[in-house]
Amino acid sequence: MRSERLLSIMLLLQTHGQLSASDLAARLEVSPRTIMRDVEALSSAGVPVYSVRGPHGGIALLPGYRTDVTGLTADESRALFVLLSGGVHRDLGLGEAIGPALRKVMAALPSPHRPDADLLSRRILVDPSRWRGASARPAAGLDVLQQAVLSDRRLRVRYRHGGDGAERDYTLDPHGLVSKAGTWYLVAEHRSRPKLFRSDRIRRAEVLDEEVRRSDPRELPQIWDGLRRAIDEVPTPVPARVRVRRSVLQRFRMVQETDLAPGADFEDDGDEYVVTTLAFRSVEAGAMLLAFGPDVEVLDPPEMRRYLAGRALATHEQYKF
Fold it and tell me: Which of 18, 47, 68 is the last residue of a domain?
């Protein structure tokens, strides 16, 4: 609604002092032309808003002007205390409420506290939903990562990769930190491309005395959403029919819950086993089932059975006496 956007413009200017039309447009998800029309409407309504031309110009309110932001709505108050990602607010029907609520609280803060509060809200994100087959990992080295994120400094890290276990050095330009179901990730650019780095795999981190050089102009939630989708959304998942021993069923369900195929159920297969269907990103992704040993067996597809048999045989050869 335009009235909500006009109020948001006043609150943002009250908080920051001066912002460019493009910055306001990005924050409110409209065009700069729309922002300029809104500024004209505010001025016509008697709000002391003005534009400054030039490379360091922007839009501002006359010093000392403050708008009345009495009373949060019920939805805004509820949204404020769900300190999670925007997706959670949308799930609860509060997606439109969280932005105005935070802007009102920001405007009410003592002016010396606003920059830190605003920076924290733009650099830290919490996403409570689990990833496929993933469990929470203990936070590691967050103090150094947070220092770089909040000071807009580059990072030099030694990172251990999950696939081959190799350790490599990277110079990174941080965008922010994301807590995904209890596991912390650093969102940072490497060679101008946003990537994810799991905090517990960062073996060493050093804040450099260099300002970040971000190429991607998007805010942290938009970058995170793109990286998350690249991992979460499998265009053509590989279905796997598996047999599970009842004695490990509880652990199996906990570990593989996010890999269950849509509509899949657990069917009886005698007194000792149940059968269900999983959906994996690839045939190779089924390797995680080897952790259950003989208590879980892939019945189909044949190519996954062959792949797992090869992995099991290679492991046997490595450890045989």
Answer: 68
| Residue recorded with tokens 């209890």 | 182
CATH number of the structural domain spanning residue 37: 1.10.10.10
Tell me, yes or no, whether 168 lies in a domain: yes
Q: 0.85 cut: is pTM over it?
A: no
Query: Among the residues of 61-129, which ranges form H helices?
Result: 74-80, 86-91, 95-108, 114-123
Q: Which domain holds residue 12?
A: 1-68
Q: How far apart are CA 103 and CA 121, in angstroms?
A: 11
- 68: region left, alpha or beta (phi > 0 left; psi from -120 to 50 alpha): beta
Render pLDDT for 265-295 as a digit per residue (tens, 0 to 9). Answer: 999 998 899 999 999 888 998 999 999 999 9
- Helix (H), strand (E) at residue 51: strand 49-52
Q: Which helix (H) or strand (E) holds 127?
A: strand 124-127
